[in-house]
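Hi support team,

I've been running sequence recovery on a batch of backbones for a student project. Most finish fine, but this one hangs at about 90% for roughly twenty minutes before it completes. I'm not sure whether the input is malformed or the queue is just slow. I've pasted the structure tokens below so you can try to reproduce it. Let me know if you need the job ID as well.

Thanks,
M.K.
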């Protein structure tokens, strides 16, 4: 049975992996340059550096392996690390450690990985943005009471797909499919709460399109004062309101952010039930969001604005 599994994963590494040598080089060079600048600017603030034994693998190698896993096509990180990284990527990562040791080291790069995601992987606002939340399930509903890893942190929430146990990932993207900002909350948080945080909308301006879950008169007024026009649909039995044809068309294109959520869950591995600690859960989500920025083609929309001097009579 073990031989069959080994041959199966060996076949996957040769024929179905998405990793190429150019992709490994590009990701490692970008990550390594960032890690050098990060260590240079933070070395004077590290506590207990003299008593800490230097790790065999550098932070840039650890982060690069975490990012490459998200685009490798593997579903299990353990098999990816043992049967692919240690066997077929010896030239790229010659000083690999054991799997258990790598899991420990991956928890130490949560700070540089977060800064790398915020500074090097985020897009720029174009005036047209989309907001949405997606559930991150940590286990199936029938195993909620037996789950001990996320006891006290995860909560039961409800989405359009039903009840779930876990967290929510709140995303804001632009019309090119680039992630502008993100926030991880418990599963029972209202989707409108992150929009009330100034840090979540720090770089956002123009029009922000959301689904019916973001309907709130108070929230609309707060955002409008800050230069953000929140555009949502209306629920049944609600009074209709005037909306420009351009806003109606862009509101129909809101599915682009749902496509981004789908790629994060199916191409990347931000959602699975094999986590053994909360820190590994956070590292996995951060790595998935960072790896998404390296996708050669992202979900996007195309639109054109026509300027005319024609007068309209109402």
């Amino acid at each position: 049975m073990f031989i069959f599994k080994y041959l199966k994963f060996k076949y996957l590494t040769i024929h179905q992996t998405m990793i190429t040598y150019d992709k490994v080089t590009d990701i490692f060079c970008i990550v390594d340059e960032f890690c050098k600048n990060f260590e240079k600017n933070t070395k004077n603030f590290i506590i207990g550096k003299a008593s800490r034994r230097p790790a065999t693998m550098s932070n840039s190698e650890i982060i690069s392996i975490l990012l490459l896993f998200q685009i490798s096509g593997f579903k299990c990180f353990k098999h990816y690390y043992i049967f692919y990284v240690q066997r077929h990527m010896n030239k790229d990562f010659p000083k690999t450690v054991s799997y258990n040791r790598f899991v420990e080291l991956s928890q130490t790069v949560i700070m540089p990985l977060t800064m790398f995601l915020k500074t090097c992987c985020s897009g720029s606002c174009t005036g047209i943005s989309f907001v949405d939340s997606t559930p991150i399930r940590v286990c199936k509903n029938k195993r909620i009471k037996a789950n001990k890893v996320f006891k006290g942190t995860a909560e039961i929430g409800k989405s359009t797909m039903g009840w779930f146990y876990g967290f929510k990932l709140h995303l804001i993207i632009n019309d090119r499919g680039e992630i502008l900002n993100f926030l991880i909350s418990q599963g029972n948080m209202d989707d409108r709460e992150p929009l009330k945080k100034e840090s979540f909308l720090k770089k956002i301006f123009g029009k922000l399109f959301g689904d019916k879950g973001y309907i709130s008169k108070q929230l609309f007024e707060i955002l409008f004062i800050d230069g953000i026009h929140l555009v949502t649909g209306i629920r049944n039995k609600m009074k209709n309101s005037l909306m420009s044809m351009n806003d109606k068309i862009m509101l129909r294109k809101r599915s682009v952010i749902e496509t981004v959520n789908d790629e994060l869950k199916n191409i990347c591995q931000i959602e699975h039930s094999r986590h053994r600690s909360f820190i590994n859960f956070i590292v996995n989500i951060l790595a998935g969001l960072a790896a998404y920025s390296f996708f050669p083609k992202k979900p996007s929309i195309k639109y054109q604005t026509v300027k005319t001097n024609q007068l309209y009579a109402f």
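--
Follow-up from support: It reproduced on our side and the slowdown came from queue contention, not your input. The beta strands are 128-137, 155-159, 162-174, 179-186, 206-209, 228-231. No action needed from you.
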